[in-house]
Amino acid sequence: MDRELFDQEMVAGEPRPFELPHWIACAPFEKYLGMHIDAAHGGKATLTMPFRVKHAQGKGLMHGGALTALADTAVAMAIKSLLPEDSHFATTTLTTQFHAPVKGGTVRAEALITSQDDREITGEACIYDDGGVKVATFTSTFRVKRR
Questions:
Q1: Per DSSP, what are the bridge partners of residue 10?
Q2: Which terminus of the chain is more exposed, N or C, with fewer CB under 10 A?
Q3: What is the DSSP string of 51-62?
Q4: What torsion do the CA atoms of 38, 107, 120, 85 make, to the nearest 10 degrees?
Q5: In 10 A of CB 91, how many CB atoms?
Q6: Per-residue pLDDT of the chain in tens (147 residues, 90 and over written 9)
Q7: Among candidates 57, 53, 76, which has minimal Cα distance to 65?
Q8: 71 and 59 in contact (C-beta within 8 Å)?
Q9: CA torsion angle for 29, 99, 102, 127 (degrees, to 10)?
Q10: 36 contacts 47 by C-beta, under 8 angstroms
Q11: pTM to 2 decimals?
């Protein structure tokens, strides 16, 4: 995706200026952060993201918002592995508990859907650093739009 498209303003009510290549694919924000979908099937997903300078907070550690975005996206991809294409859903609640700082390398999020009914889906994600240390635990609830 080119830089010009990344900088284009989104206007409410207008068609989005991009198309996803597949149902399970990274959106522009996720591409900007460098996320990669390693697997997504059966209500589970694994995503990775390198720690780049743009992910750093003031003391040089990986920003908690970047880690939370990775976890939220991992759960969303696990949901997409269960729902029909073009379903609409959104995060309604999320909690993140941080366990250890990330100082470099690549982080991995492993997500799992833990409960699902007609319109609410709950998922969890654990984020690990390159050494396999669990750096964060994430729980979220998503609401599915009625068809």
A1: none
A2: C
A3: --GGGB-TTSSB
A4: -30
A5: 15
A6: 566 666 777 678 888 777 766 778 889 899 999 999 999 999 999 999 999 999 999 999 999 999 999 999 999 999 999 999 989 999 999 999 999 999 999 999 999 999 999 899 999 999 999 999 999 999 999 999 987
A7: 57
A8: no
A9: -50
A10: yes
A11: 0.89
